[in-house]
Amino acid sequence: MELYSVFSEQMSDLAPEHALVVGFSGGLDSTVLLALTARLAAEHKVAVRAIYIAHGLQSAADAWPAHCQQVAESLGVSCQTLTVDVQLGPRVSLEAAARTARYQAFSESLQPNEVLLTGHHLDDQAETLLLALKRGAGVSGLAAMPAKKALGMAQQWRPLLPCSRAQLEAYAYQQGLEWVEDPSNSDNAFDRNFLRNRIMPMLQQKWPSFTTTLARSAELCAEQADLAEEVAVQDLPQSLNSGGGVLIAHLQSLSQARRHNVLRYWLQHQGVYASRRQLQAIWQEVALARPDASPKVRVAEQVIQRYQGALYVPVAMADPIELASLQGEQWLDVGVGQLKLSWVSENADLAADVDINVLQLVFNRSGLRAQPYGRAGSRPLKKLWQEYAIAPWQRASMPLLMQGDSLVAVVGLFVCQTYQAKPNQAGWRIEWQSKKAGKAMLNFKC
After folding, report:
1. Do 420 and 349 touch, CB atoms closer than 8 A?
2. 172-212 per-position pLDDT tens digit
3. Which of 19, 108, 305, 397 has the fewest Cβ atoms nearer than 10 Å?
4. Which domains does the chain have, with CATH numbers?
């Protein structure tokens, strides 16, 4: 099939409200992509622009922004140059650091309605899978590069994934396109270059369809990764306690594969990416440690530890902001999250006679007592923290609704007996959006 037809088919989900952004390096792949995109954009009357990322890693690249500007203008597309600072770290390759900086710049530049197009093709996909095999990756890593994924508030599409580099090169010569050659592409000290220049030619000479079959394996691994995530989504809610910790007792009821799956999923949502060996260490050294121990396992910059039969990843929170007065029907930013009190005709949290104008929101108060709704008698809040499995490092960020010296509610945890709305009666609903929880809304009824 002709290259533009393949490209158009891959772009079939393009909506009228979309605007296109081409990640343009000036090389063969992105030059072909820009030419195809400019044609498609003209036919579909959608906006398109290009972004060139300047890494500042080699002197040969000094002339590339001007080249990209010229090529883009010849295709009727504007081209913006963004300069990034590539930060190297321990056990982080130059390739990985440059990629991280590049996608960070893209993410910050893109608008929610924009789609970033990148020129990854079939050969790139094969190389990515082989590199994942070298690292000993699981199915998520072996799934290689998805055709579409979220990128910040926008999306990233790879519409050339079904196409080989040879197809792109043939199209570029046919259309008379000009591109730059990166001198570093011949440096086999880089893993991907070594695969591309030394290994892949031999494999394709022996098995001409090798890149196609590798891409098929990546698609199958992507299906398995999606299935594993669906299982984790089902398992995780049953595994969590009220403080966001993962209950060790529930994990023990799962098979090892399913336990690793839900643990990996939970950790990734805490920004922790653990290897299989690290997962085993978390289970053996933290979860199954003797009861009187306080074990920890460090993964990169994060620490996994245990408290009252659950695993946690303590996260540094923003400084909480106390409110001397409250207003209803609007979100109130309190640093560690947002609070909203809304009047509802049924299923309320606070009774109708509670005057929210005299309520205050405070944090980290000692000496308080509380009687959660449905409980007989009050208890010190310190004891209730333990009972509700709120870990010590979480308590200073727990929002407390107060009326004078009386505790009205611990937002997101319970409402005190005196202030609780009666079932199915009007009153105030409490909504809490934790910054740690992202956009997930934590509504509660105690």
Report:
1. yes
2. 999 999 999 988 889 999 899 999 999 999 999 999 999 99
3. 108
4. 3-214 (3.40.50.620), 240-312 (1.20.59.20), 332-443 (no CATH)
